[in-house]
Amino acid sequence: MSREIIDAYFAAFNAGDPAGMLVLVSEDVQHFVNQGALRQGRAAFAEFCSHMGVSYREELRDIVIFVNEDGTRAAAEFTVHGEYLRTDPGLPEARGQRYVLPAGSFFALSGGRITRITTCYNLQDWIRQVSA
Length: 132
Prior knowledge:
It contains four helices and six strands, in the order ααββαββββα. By secondary structure, the protein is α+β, with helices and mostly antiparallel strands.
């Protein structure tokens, strides 16, 4: 079941379907993105998804998912193919720059929902790509 939840999460992400992602996370989900603060709860995660949908267009490719034996933890490695659409405060100006980044996410799961998402990528590499 855990593998199916993670597959559905990435399918919703790639479809640009934040509502599809939200039904997969717990009400008290913890969301960690590298270089950023903890977002606690489904509402905070929904705000993040909304912001991302306006500022970035991304597709995750080459996704490889790993799940532990009891289905309480999962990890995924993937490549982000993106376009920077709208300037994010404190980051370089957006001009439709394209980027490709290796990235990964770690998940905790309980009760058929994702309870924690930790996403990691090289922010300095992204800045270099969109600043070129």
